[in-house]
TrEMBL record:
TM helices/strands, residue ranges: 74-91
Pfam family, one: Bap31
Compartments where found: Endoplasmic reticulum membrane; Membrane
Topology class, membrane: Multi-pass membrane protein
GO cellular component, one term: endoplasmic reticulum membrane
Domain of life (superkingdom): Eukaryota
Protein name per its UniProtKB record: Endoplasmic reticulum transmembrane protein
Function in brief: May play a role in anterograde transport of membrane proteins from the endoplasmic reticulum to the Golgi.
BAP29/BAP31 transmembrane domain sequence ranges: 1-105
Lineage: Eukaryota, Metazoa, Chordata, Craniata, Vertebrata
Originating gene: Bcap29
Length: 130
């Protein structure tokens, strides 16, 4: 089934477009991940927490809320980046497998034809020798 899907001419035309989109999404996810890392580092510093605790409890809660959101964004962007890379690798492997199966089938047919021709020539050779 995958062989039929990946051998559609439209698929090869769209492959260039999808590769560009994949790289664009990877860059976007990396930027989001780095921004989330920056935010986590900003709100998890001990110095900021101590100042907020001394000034106002609402300010401390606000800092903790922003820390939670930045950690959430870090996890979401990190897992999204990881899963996007896994998805890309899976599609690449499926494409390679479909191409390999196609070439394997073609080579198998070629070997069968060569074997048939060799048998035919051997049988003809034996008839000529008799």
């Amino acid at each position: 089934r995958w062989q039929k899907i990946f051998m559609i001419p439209l698929w090869s035309k769209m492959a260039v477009f999808w590769n560009k989109m994949f790289l664009t999404i990877i860059v976007l996810l990396i930027v989001l991940f780095l921004d989330a890392v920056r935010e986590v580092r900003k709100y998890s510093s001990v110095h900021v927490n101590e100042k907020a605790a001394n000034v106002n409890t609402n300010a401390f809660d606000h800092i903790q809320m922003k820390l939670f959101r930045s950690q959430r964004n870090l996890y979401l962007s990190g897992f999204s980046l990881f899963l996007w890379l896994v998805l890309r690798r899976t599609v690449t492997l499926l494409t390679q497998l479909a191409k390999g199966m196609t070439s394997h089938a073609a080579l198998e047919m070629q070997v069968n034809d060569a074997t048939e021709a060799a048998r035919k020539y051997m049988a003809e050779n034996e008839r000529l020798q008799e």
